[in-house]
């Protein structure tokens, strides 16, 4: 019998939850919402610099450039900023977040998706709110926002919605669950942080293995298979909506540092093979003992740049060294390297909450094995993956053999799985304790054991913290800079002890509330409210260490992109300005970790995690070694020096946008091609891999030959040239085979690669026009598939909800009730 609609039951609780989430978001991000302030997010500011040319072109023409010359001499725009009009999922995100500003919208949607998961499980509104808070205010979620990893944050945010659809489809209603799964996966893929999606898929794989085992055990495999087919169709639809983004990314990845190297010899110590260099990928590996930060946030000192108070040992040490009180305070407030763990540096620990860990341990004793099996397995997998090179036997095997795993770096971020599984099992334990208090044997003992284990660990850390070294590999630099290292070590010890006792206290308080509830001394509402408040206070206070109101400021972008004297000097050069300032600039102080330069100039450097592999080879072998001929061939006219007296230097004899050469230097392999750039004259010679691009002539005439760029757009270049004889032109443009087409007087012609990264073309004598147009078929095909899939998704979701509401829910045989 269908239950009639009841507003008070069916709508009001969820409206209250949304209101609570809006209030939490508004309070935390009040500077953004009410004071017109922003956050100086490093990666976002770098993104805006790298995307400036793309955005300007879009605003001016209403079209997508798909290529930009603003970073690394030129690269596809797919992984910087490309719009796919056929993909409608962006509208879904705007609706779900009420189009809140970034940062606020990120946390709000994390709360909403976590809430959806827990409501799909059948939890009450207030339990689901507590669980959503536990999911969303894990320290890592705020730390990555401070760093500017917004797309990573949003990809993580939608993981609970994917799990909600998956579980609901198996547990209660296949059609509504499948629709929810399709929407969640669509949104997860929309933000294109494939590493986070990969971790989610690993968790889903663990879940699937457990479900298959139980299905065989219970004789329900055929039913599970039917549900799996429907979910697979939903997944295909989600991939279809994002097909344009995924297709172009996959195409580009083959040419990026995530793809297979063409070199047979190591380049600057890097391994040769498919995917990232192993050392690079595992550079950020969580320490084995560092896993304690899940329970005790400052177990390893917190951040690599943490402020201290005036009651700290380091402050007093500066006073003893002769510093004035104001100077000593400034030194400790500006941030000191309190982190002493094994990572090169960190913005803060992954802290899921002392109470959450305590409830997770309780869940091991009271939650059904079918749930603990995959949640514990997922947690262990997450932690082991995050250990990276600190558990190399397993992780190196994964890197070398598991599909696509070698495409990702910073393996410490695998803890995103744990920051989902630990709160999930924790809230399941709280739910079970509240609802089945009388049915759980020895519940009081299990509660005390769980509290004793977690609080006991904290107490032991508090008692024996002094046995640790509190020294890091980077402390030698502090000693050389005459910092009071003994005082810093004392403050690190104090931070560990303080947080250990803090976690101990939160666990004891939460355990006491639940113990009194088990003993009928407190009502369920009081116990739930008390635990919820403690969880919020615990996580909120730690989050404030890494992202608080003091971090927000006005006119962030205007201040960051204020032209420097060096920028102004370069911009005064009006030569070629009408053709788009077509020369390049290198920012010598930090060329390959800086996209601010790209906001004003076409840069030899940039900031991106997926550069073209050949360009990275060029950086490693030649640009970093100040090979002037390579800088000349990249048409590098200016160097920003960082010197106040002479902020800009003119690089002599930059070769321009294109030039005729006299001879071809044939080589037989990519290795030879790269090596040949060590000693060659870029103005007269073109180095060509003749095995890849057969070219018969070796010598060309340059008499009376000239060529110039007459029109410039990011995706369109037009040259005019005159030559008395047939010639060979080298273009100071990056060779990329998937999308660039050359035309001679309007007719398609071939071009080839020269000098390892540039374009070249044999041209006939006379006066002619050459054009290059970037029109990759992958973008247009992908966008068409995305449009069709977006329409289908809308129809399927509406139809699935309509059919699912009409259809009687299935019996809970596929997934047991918790």
Automatic annotation (TrEMBL):
The keyword Transmembrane helix applies. The chain crosses the membrane at residues 12-29, 100-119, 126-145, 151-169, 197-216, 228-247, 348-367, 374-391, 411-434, 446-465, 500-518, 525-542, 785-805. The keyword Cytoplasm does not apply. Keywords: Membrane, Transmembrane, Transmembrane helix. InterPro entries: Uncharacterised_YfhO. This is Bacterial membrane protein YfhO. The lineage of its organism: Bacteria, Pseudomonadati, Bacteroidota, Cytophagia, Cytophagales.
